[in-house]
Amino acid sequence: MSKRVAILGSTGSIGCSTLDVVRHLGPPYRATALGAYRQVDKLCDQAREFRPSAVALSDATQIEALKRKLGPDGPKVYSGPSGLVDLVRRDDVDIVVAAVVGAAGLPAALATVQAGKPLALANKESLVVAGSLLIPLAREKGVPLLPVDSEHSAIFQAMASGRQHEVRRIVLTASGGPFRNTPIEKMRDATLEDALNHPTWRMGSKITIDSATMFNKALELIEACWLFDLKPEQVQVVIHPESVIHSMVEFVDGSVIAQLSPPDMKTPIQYALTYPERANGCSRRMDWASAFSLNFQPPDFERFPALQMAYDAAAAGGTAGAVLNAANEVAVAAFIDGKIRFGDISTVVRRVTSETSVQTHPTLDDLLEADRVARRQAEVCVADQCPSAA
């Protein structure tokens, strides 16, 4: 039976890895729809190799250039903010891999579930921002949400060893990023190059910086609460520098089930595509003939204030996740642009979240408005250099 795949964010790190997996699996897997933001040349190269039926480019200013490069016999082209939504609604799409960075991926994720199609979710922000809408809708439609993040894939797999009511807690592992042992004062003035120098993973800029601040783990904590129907106090974070154990589930009888593999995103991507089956993989394998050690330590909440903010947002629910995510996206962009210091990222987010009221039962419009207001507040915070004055 064929499985026709739409990849949203096909030119990014996760998207390219997904295409590697599709290439490895071969027929009956086909990449029939590809969506990107503005990387025209890369999207064209992918379209020439995989010959999708349709492509989408969110940046409408680049659409004519894309059409020229694809030629008159190329795939159908969708453009603008609605392009990804149009893509996932196509009849020749069986499963959607959502790998768009940030809250921009939310409309297409919702459209996928509304269309009754399985959603392989690498865009954690969709659940952080709108888990209160996405999860009930998926249950109503009977649509599987298949986690692609290595941590949530690990939990998803480990959960098969028991039943929901038997879970005591889950343990999210975190590498600790490049600043795990850096003195806090020095860490606050870290350069962009320092922040992008991740010790174990090779990812896009945004997620790599989030790993350095541990906002990535903060978002994953909120996402885990939604995905696995857990309370914030049932989610624990532990530093695991080797990034071999991707997360664990502890059951009420004391048994702990962990999923292990070398750090390679193709492993969870392939599991999401082939679920509930498994297939021969194209990822690196564990080398059991060589000696190695696995280390664990509790996280330092002073070094990584994002974690406490995540617990607070998860407990508050409603629009709190949308505000946290929006403020972080603006702060990370400001750091990349050299407008604020690395240490100011968490200060900007803290200021915005502390000054914003939470709506406990938001509609989609409420969530989008909370996102918009939080971004504006964060931009003002950056412009006024309030982190330095705080």
Protein topology:
Layout lengths: L2 E6 L4 H13 L3 E8 L3 H11 L3 E4 L5 H8 L5 E4 L3 H6 L6 E4 L7 H9 L4 E3 L2 H18 L3 E3 L2 H9 L8 E8 L9 H5 L3 H4 L9 H9 L1 H13 L7 E5 L5 E7 L4 E5 L5 H9 L31 H11 L3 H17 L7 H11 L9 H20 L2 H4 L1
Parallel strand pairs: 1-2, 1-5, 2-3, 3-4, 5-6, 6-7, 8-9
Antiparallel strand pairs: 8-10, 10-11
Helix pairs in contact: 2-3, 5-6, 6-11, 6-14, 11-13, 14-15, 14-16, 15-16
Describe it for me?
This protein is of the alpha/beta class. It has 17 helices and 11 strands. The strands form 2 sheets. A 7-stranded parallel beta sheet has the order 4-3-2-1-5-6-7, with helices on both faces. A 4-stranded mixed beta sheet has the order 9-8-10-11, with helices on one face. Helix 2 (40-50) packs parallel to helix 3 (63-70) and helix 14 (320-336) packs antiparallel against helix 15.
